[in-house]
Write a structure and sequence with these properties.
Blueprint lengths: L5 E6 L2 H5 L5 H12 L3 E4 L28 H11 L4 E4 L2 E2 L5 H14 L4 E6 L4 H6 L7 H17 L3 E4 L4 E5 L13 E3 L5 H10 L2 E2 L6 H17 L8 E5 L12 H6 L1 H6 L4 E5 H4 L6 H11 L3
Parallel strand pairs: 1-2, 1-11, 2-3, 3-5, 4-5, 5-8, 8-9, 9-10, 10-11
Antiparallel strand pairs: 6-7
Helix pairs in contact: 2-3, 2-12, 3-4, 4-6, 7-8
Length: 301
């Protein structure tokens, strides 16, 4: 029996750690599965535009030629190599994908994995990426909302119908439907604004805040929980995947033990899942397994 938040591994720094050997990501998932990590998460960019200066969270941390493997494809390969670890996206830029195709891809992956998919969604920050995908920047939130509602209709109903401004259909059947009886859990990588909270209450199973500040995390969780209760939903069933509170040594290397010591405070602030970015703790491929062993052993896995 373990205590504390679940452990989530975000796959980042793919170019530095794996180079052209993207098949190494499958071995990474197998390793994480064997060692007791609870979830592995793939990030997403359909394409990278030139304006990384618009990145809203500080200096963009990756080089221009960083590979961004398509998340659902990678997770499907990971599903075949694992048995229990949950498979997540964080975030999948949902408006960049047609709703019917997203519904089919996600349902297929959920079926292949035996019901292990957590679909983390958002709208991203690149205008060029969405515009080139046929999803105009100004429609990104509308396309997110309508696309996810359309997915849920296809996941639950047969035949399914939906009528929106950006997607509409009548009497469609889309099989396979997800294995998970309530459909695929939708986790939102958005701010906990009034409208953001409304989205999460209507459609969400969890929240993935970008902020690392514990006070901001606690305030966001409190707003979400109050809104869930007002809507008749039990807040205890709503997940929060938050960044582990990084502690740095001199030379800008992360101190894993000191970071792990901060997990009780993260849990107290409302997190149910602690997220660890792989590239922060492993600067080269040979450090990946020692990091995972240290992480899972310290967490009592």
């Amino acid at each position: 029996m373990t205590e504390g938040p679940a452990l989530s591994l975000t796959v980042s720094g793919v170019g530095r750690l794996y180079g052209d050997d993207l098949a190494g990501l499958v071995e990474l998932a197998r390793m994480a599965d064997d060692l007791g990590v609870d979830q592995i998460v793939m990030t997403d960019h359909v394409a990278m535009g030139p304006r990384t200066d618009r990145y809203p969270y500080g200096r963009f941390p990756m080089p221009e030629d960083e590979p961004w493997p398509e998340p659902m494809t990678v997770l499907a390969a990971m599903a075949a190599a694992t048995t229990r670890i949950r498979l997540g996206t964080g975030i999948l830029i949902a408006p960049a994908r047609p709703a019917l195709l997203l519904a089919k891809t996600a349902a297929t992956l959920d079926t292949l994995s035996g019901g292990r998919l957590d679909l983390g969604v958002g709208v991203g920050w690149q205008r060029e990426e969405l515009d080139a995908s046929g999803a105009p920047w100004g429609e990104r939130w509308l396309r997110l909302d309508e696309g996810l509602r359309a997915c849920r209709a296809l996941w639950h109903d047969a035949p399914a119908s939906f009528s929106g401004k950006t997607v509409a259909f009548e009497g469609l059947r889309s099989f396979p439907q997800p294995v998970q009886p309530r459909g695929i859990p939708l986790w939102f990588g958005i701010a906990a604004t009034e409208r953001g909270v409304e989205r999460m209450v209507e459609l969400g199973a969890g929240w993935m805040p970008m902020e690392s500040d514990l006070a901001e995390l606690r305030a966001g969780v409190n707003r979400i929980h109050a809104a869930l209760a007002a809507a008749g939903r039990d807040p205890a069933g709503f997940g929060v995947r938050a960044h582990a509170p990084l502690v740095w040594r001199e030379g800008r290397t992360a101190d894993l033990d000191a970071t792990l010591a901060g997990l009780p405070a993260l849990t107290e602030a409302g997190a149910t899942v602690a997220s660890f970015a792989l590239a922060v703790f492993a600067r080269e491929r040979g450090q990946v397994r020692p990091f995972l062993e240290h992480l899972t052993r310290a967490a009592g896995r």
